[in-house]
Amino acid sequence: MKLMWRYLKNYKLLLLLNFLCVFGFVIIELGLPTLLALIIDEGIVMNEYPVVLYYGKWMIALAVIGLIGLIGLAFAGSRITSNIVRDIRNDIFMSVQSFSHREFNQIGVSSLVTRTTNDAFQVMVFLQMLLRLGMMTPIMFISSFVMIVRTSPSLSYVALIAIPFLFAIVWLIGKKSEPLSEQQQANLDDINQNLRENLTGLRVIRAFVKESFQESRFAKVNQNYASVSKKLFKLMALAMPGFSIAFNLILAAIVWLGAVEIQNGGLQVGSLIAFIEYIFHALFSFMLFANVFMMYPRAAVSAERIEEVLQIEPSIDENETGVTETKTHGYIAFENVTFAYPGNTESPVIRDVSFTADPGETIAFIGSTGSGKSTLIQLIPRFYDVTKGRILIDGVDVRDYQLRALRKKIGFIPQKALLFTGTISHNMRFGKWNATTNEVEEASDISQAKDFILSKPDQYEEYLAEGGSNMSGGQKQRLSIARAIIKKPDIYIFDDSFSALDYQTDARLRERLKAETKESAVLIVAQRVGSIRHADKIIVLDKGVIVAQGKHEELLKTSDIYYAIASSQLSKEELA
Ligand SMILES: Nc1ncnc2c1ncn2[C@@H]1O[C@H](COP(=O)(O)OP(=O)(O)OP(=O)(O)O)[C@@H](O)[C@H]1O
Predict the structure, then answer these.
(1) Distance from the alpha carbon of residue 375 to the mean position of ligand 1, in angstroms
(2) What is the best residue among 101, 339, 345, 371 to mutate for testing ligand 1's pocket, by most ligand atoms within 8 Å of CB?
(3) Cα torsion angle, 23, 27, 30, 32, sign
(4) What is the per-residue pLDDT across 59-71, written as a single tens digit (0 to 9) for each?
(5) Where in the chain is the domain with CATH 1.20.1560.10?
(6) Which atom in ligand 1 lies closest to the alpha carbon of residue 371?
(7) For the ABC transmembrane type-1 domain, which residue ranges apply (predicted)?
(8) What is the mean pLDDT of residues 313-338?
(9) Which of 373, 493, 495, 539 has most ligand 1 atoms within 8 Å of CB, for mutation?
């Protein structure tokens, strides 16, 4: 509720309009039976036609005003709720933008999607009900009750007896539904995760003929969701028979006791009709309020899940007041860097690593899979922070930079080339929005992407499908390299970014890069010795520790691990 109130506060004027419309509507709804009673008792029973006409006109006027109130209510309510759900989604999105890998691991990508879509939707549905019924029904209920007591105090105790019973039903259902709602949203996360994995891994699933296995896995999580939903809906549905029994008993009692009172001369027919109308309003508004109340636990669970995302403090802070400018460019120094993944602090995956890289230098990292190469380079743009030691860029600790300024210095080419939906030029300009056509073409030329781009029907305006799925692996890699080149960064980080290129393209690309990166430091993670043999320094990693470093020729003689990797890839002549 705190979350909803925080957002509701931003729409005070619309809320006031909503409240006035609700209030007006209630007054009118309850005014109509009073006028009806007057028409019957003072007009029809007394045979006074002008009285009937007089009150009749008032009834029409009130009905029109009530209609205007309803329209105002729809306008204010829908504006508030759709704006709030938009604000919530924007805020989640902004929060997530500042998350480091650690926070993504904590919540999970699928759950973040559910929270932004379904949970926000649940909150919207509840707010819609709250603004309409949640405001209207208590006013209606209390006003109806006042009218009930005013019309016939002797009959009003019938309603009084029924109310505790009705409250008990609502409270019980609300209490029971909360854990079920929690479970339901968690199950929705599972469905989302399953679906996501299935869609992204469709080719692997087909290649391994595991469709039926995946289907049964999906059917299971889907069934879990269905079972919990069934329990929840059954619980909600149970309220209806309870209310219905109570309503009918109350009405029967009133008609019977009212008839006795009319016979005794204590009540007029018109008043009994108005009384029944009031009691109907009171009970009906109670039932509608009960619906809002029963929806609350569900919305509260969703609001809590949204709040959890909004309240997460990113472990990597933006450091808005940090360093933005440096005198030098392209200097890197790792000083005794140790790093352990969150939750795994006892076993660091990087241990006491120190090295330097200067502008114009190419430093390559090689080692068996899992030796920590990718982890090591991810520490530079602060995807994670070091556990011990420090990393200096141009003499400044990366943690002392304004985060944006630090990342502006770096051209990062990830292991898995990721492109965005849009044109090729749009994807390349991700590196520099205001890049000129010449710059785009030059970057594509250096990255060896130009030829294949020009062979596409729309060339630089060729449209890329989601994740660049209509490009080959090598084409994606070259585009993601071009995206970094266009940025002209001080530091290039290639995380195994040449793996999908053929040897010739790899060689041509490295040649062009050499000229392009004369004033930048270049870090390359590679599995292929051929891609790094010309590096100024090759660092051999094993279980997170530097076990050897030097040039290709030196390492062949001094490092057994390097020799073993090289001999598995190079010919005897190349090794000699
Ligand atoms: N997000 C993570 N959380 C926890 N442990 C991780 C995470 N990512 C990687 N690791 C672990 O850290 C170690 C180093 O992984 P890393 O990806 O850096 O190795 P790598 O040398 O780049 O491997 P490869 O050559 O296969 O890409 C591995 O043991 C891996 O299991």
Answers:
(1) 6
(2) 371
(3) negative
(4) 888 888 888 888 8
(5) 2-311
(6) 21
(7) 16-298
(8) 88
(9) 373
**416 close to ligand 1 (CB < 6 Angstrom):** no
CA of residue 343 to ligand 1 center, whole Å:
14
Between residues 386 and 199, which one has the greater pLDDT?
386
Q: Strand 388-393 to strand 332-339: parallel, antiparallel, or no bridges (unpaired)?
A: antiparallel
Phi/psi for 334 (5° steps) reads -95, 125
Q: Write down how long the chain is.
A: 576
CA of 65 from ligand 1 middle (Å) equals 68
Work out whether the CA dihedral 422, 426, 427, 430 comes out positive or negative.
Answer: negative
Rounded percentage of the chain residues whose pLDDT exceeds 90 = 20
For helices 269-311 and 153-200, the axis angle rounded to 10 degrees is 30
| Contact (CB, 8 A) for 429 and 445 | no
What's domain 411-488's superfamily in CATH?
Answer: P-loop containing nucleotide triphosphate hydrolases (3.40.50.300)
Which residue has a Cα nearest atom 17 of ligand 1?
Answer: 374
Q: Which residue has the higher pLDDT, 251 or 91?
A: 91
Q: What is the 374 CA–ligand 1 centroid distance (Å)? A: 7
**Residue 165: predicted pLDDT:** 77
Q: What is the overall mean pLDDT for the chain? A: 85
Q: Which two tokens stand for residue 104?
A: 């993504």
CATH topology of domain 2-311: ABC transporter transmembrane region fold (1.20.1560)
Q: What is the ipTM of this complex?
A: 0.95
Pocket of ligand 1 contains residue 371 by CB under 6 Å? yes
Strand partners, 357: 332
544 CA to middle of ligand 1, Å? 10
β-partners of residue 392 are 333, 397
CB 305 less than 6 A from any atom of ligand 1 = no
- Pairwise CA distance, residues 377 & 402, whole Å: 19
Question: In angstroms, what is the span from residue 334 Cα to ligand 1's centroid?
Answer: 19
CATH of domain 326-409+491-506+519-576: 3.40.50.300
At 101 the pLDDT is 78
